[in-house]
Amino acid sequence: MPGVPPTRFAFLGPEGTFAEAALRSLPAFSGASEDAGQALPCVSDVLDAVRRGEADAGLVPLENSVEGSVAATLDELATGEPLVIVREIFLPVTLPLLVRAGTAVEDVRTFATHPHAYAQVRQQLASILPGVEVIATASTAAAAEGVAKGRYDAAVASPIAAARYRLTVVRDDVADHHGAVTRFVLVSQPAPPPPRTGHDKTSLAAFIDDDHTGALLEVLTEFAIRGISLTRIESRPTKERLGVYFFSLDCEGHLADERVGEALTALRRLCADLRFLGSYPRADGRTPKSVPDKASDASFSDAAAWMIRLREGRL
Amino acid sequence: MPGVPPTRFAFLGPEGTFAEAALRSLPAFSGASEDAGQALPCVSDVLDAVRRGEADAGLVPLENSVEGSVAATLDELATGEPLVIVREIFLPVTLPLLVRAGTAVEDVRTFATHPHAYAQVRQQLASILPGVEVIATASTAAAAEGVAKGRYDAAVASPIAAARYRLTVVRDDVADHHGAVTRFVLVSQPAPPPPRTGHDKTSLAAFIDDDHTGALLEVLTEFAIRGISLTRIESRPTKERLGVYFFSLDCEGHLADERVGEALTALRRLCADLRFLGSYPRADGRTPKSVPDKASDASFSDAAAWMIRLREGRL
Amino acid sequence: MPGVPPTRFAFLGPEGTFAEAALRSLPAFSGASEDAGQALPCVSDVLDAVRRGEADAGLVPLENSVEGSVAATLDELATGEPLVIVREIFLPVTLPLLVRAGTAVEDVRTFATHPHAYAQVRQQLASILPGVEVIATASTAAAAEGVAKGRYDAAVASPIAAARYRLTVVRDDVADHHGAVTRFVLVSQPAPPPPRTGHDKTSLAAFIDDDHTGALLEVLTEFAIRGISLTRIESRPTKERLGVYFFSLDCEGHLADERVGEALTALRRLCADLRFLGSYPRADGRTPKSVPDKASDASFSDAAAWMIRLREGRL
Amino acid sequence: MPGVPPTRFAFLGPEGTFAEAALRSLPAFSGASEDAGQALPCVSDVLDAVRRGEADAGLVPLENSVEGSVAATLDELATGEPLVIVREIFLPVTLPLLVRAGTAVEDVRTFATHPHAYAQVRQQLASILPGVEVIATASTAAAAEGVAKGRYDAAVASPIAAARYRLTVVRDDVADHHGAVTRFVLVSQPAPPPPRTGHDKTSLAAFIDDDHTGALLEVLTEFAIRGISLTRIESRPTKERLGVYFFSLDCEGHLADERVGEALTALRRLCADLRFLGSYPRADGRTPKSVPDKASDASFSDAAAWMIRLREGRL
Question: Which of D268, D276, D315 shows the shortest C-beta gap to A276?
Answer without folding.
Answer: D315
